[in-house]
Predict the structure.
Amino acid sequence: MNSKKPLNGPSLEYSKNPDKLVILLHGYGDTGENFINIANYLYETSAPINFYSPNAPTKINNFSNGLEWFNLYPNGINFNDAGKAEIEILKQDCISSLSLIKNYINEKCNKFSLTYNDCFLIGFSQGAMMSYMLGELINQKFAGCAIISGRILNFINSEKNLFINTPIFISHGDRDTVLKLDYFYESCNIIKKLGFPYESHLMKEEEHTISPVLLNLLKNFIKKNV
C-alpha cells in the first residue's frame, strides 16, 4: 500500500476542451506552485493546451516548504553513490511516487477524454528523472518527454517498450554543478541506443537552471509535437 497521499497542485487550464496536457514535474526542494510559472512561457495560443504542476508527495526535513519525489540519501548515502541496498530503497521510493503521478495524470486524462499520447511530461532535475521513469513504467507513447538538467535512472527496462516512440527533449547546462555534465552525455547515449526520436541541447554558459533561451527551445519542442 502506498503511504504517500494523492497528489495535488496548481494548474493553468487555458481550454475547456484541450487537445494536449502538459505535466510539469518540479525539482528537488521546489513546489508545483513555483514550477507552474513556466507554463506562462510555454503556452502556445494557437493550440488548446492545459498545464498541471503536481506537488511532490514528501516534505524535506529542515527544508522550508521544500518537497521531493524521492529521498536523495537512502541509508544516508547520496543516491549518485548508492550501492545495491540503497538502489533498492531508492527504486521503491521512486515507484511509490510514480504510482501517484500516474493516478494524477489518469484523472486529468479522464476529465478531458484524452490519452497518454496527448500528454507531455516535462521535468526539471529530480522531476526530469521522474518524467523519464514514468514513461518507462507506463509503457505507452506520450506526446513528448523533456529531461531538463536531469539524468536517467535505469530502474525499468525500456527494451520493447512503447515509450521509445515518444519524442525526447534533453538539455543540460555546461556549467551545472548540481548534476554533473557526464549525466547529460550518458542520458543521450541511452536514448540514442534505445532508438528514441530526440533532440539534445547543451546550454552554453548555463548552470542548473531554466533560462529564457531554454524555455524558447522547449516551447518549440511542444509546438512541433502538438
In short: The chain has one domain: 11-225. Helices lie at 32-35, 39-42, 84-112, 126-138, 182-194, 212-225. The radius of gyration is 16 Å. The first strand starts at residue 11 and ends at 13.
